[in-house]
Structures are given as C-alpha cells and as structure tokens.
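Case study 2.
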Amino acid sequence: MLNIERKLPDLCPSCSAPLQVTSLGCSTCETTVSGKFPLPILARLAPDEQKFILDFVKSSGSLKLMAQQLGLSYPTVRNLLDDIIVKLQENEKSKL
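Prediction:
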C-alpha cells in the first residue's frame, strides 16, 4: 500500500494568505470547537523542514551526526538549519 503523507495546508489556494484553523472536532463524541486558531509554527514549515527538525532533535542536536546520517557535509547541514531558523523567525514576527 502506498503511504502518501498529507501536508496540512498553510496558505489559501486562492489568494495565498495564511490559513487559520477555524474548527476542531472530536471523532468519538462529535463535539466541535469553533474559533480562530493560528497554525502551530512548526506546522507552517514544509514537510522536509519538519523532518529535518525531527531528525535534529533525535540526533540530540548534533549537526555532525546529522551530516553523517544524511550523507551531507557539515556546512550544508548547518546552512539547512540556518534557513529553517530564518523561516521560523519570520513566522514568529508575522504572528497570525
């Protein structure tokens, strides 16, 4: 069976504005909570960036270990992390 991971959309497909969660529902009792909830900051990252963060945590923050596991140079892994840091900082500044 093909496992296709779905990404939670974070931008409007029509106008590209940031999306907000407006409803949450319980599949057990069918309770629904409505309101405006910003997406968590990590959910706003691309799937490959989210995976990088998970791998970073699993490697205890060792970029050297990550470089070995990914088959990349240390400077390349450092640049990937720096790019994610910039993106996170931009997302924090533009709080939804």
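The domain at 40-93 is CATH 1.10.10 (Arc Repressor Mutant, subunit A).
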